[in-house]
Specification:
Potato inhibitor I family protein; three-stranded mixed sheet; Trypsin Inhibitor V, Chain A; single chain; about 110 residues
C-alpha cells in the first residue's frame, strides 16, 4: 500500500507542478504580447506608416493626422473595435486603426 500511496503523491505533485508552469507561461506570454511593437514597413517612407503618434489619440484625431501626412492617394481607413474579426490578406491602401471601447487608438496603425 505504501508504494501506491507514493505514486499518488508523486502524480499529485506532478499535476500541481504542471498547472503552475502552465499558468506561469500563460502570464509570461500575455506580458510579452503587450510589449511587442510592430516594426516599420521596409521600403516605405515614414509618412506612409506605421503611425506611432496616433497611439492614445481619439479616432478622429488619428484619422486627421494620417490623412495630413500621407501622400494623396485613395486610402481605406478602417476603424477596428475590440473583438472584430479580420481578414488576413494584405491591402496596401488599407489602414487599420484599432480602438478601445472609448474610441481611443489602442495600437499603432499601419497598412495592411
Amino acid at each position: 500500500m505504501t508504494c501506491s500511496g507514493d505514486v499518488l503523491v508523486t502524480l499529485l505533485l506532478l499535476g500541481v507542478g504542471l498547472l503552475a508552469a502552465t499558468v506561469h507561461l500563460q502570464n509570461k506570454g500575455h506580458q510579452l504580447s503587450n510589449s511587442i511593437v510592430a516594426p516599420p514597413m521596409i521600403g516605405m517612407a515614414s509618412q506612409q506608416g506605421p503611425w506611432p503618434k496616433c497611439l492614445g489619440l481619439s479616432v478622429e484625431s488619428c484619422e486627421s493626422y494620417i490623412l495630413s501626412v500621407t501622400a494623396r492617394e485613395s486610402l481605406d481607413l478602417q476603424i477596428i473595435s475590440p473583438g472584430t474579426a479580420l481578414s488576413g490578406n494584405f491591402q496596401k491602401n488599407r489602414i487599420r486603426i484599432f480602438v478601445d471601447e472609448e474610441g481611443v487608438v489602442s495600437a499603432v496603425p499601419g497598412r495592411g
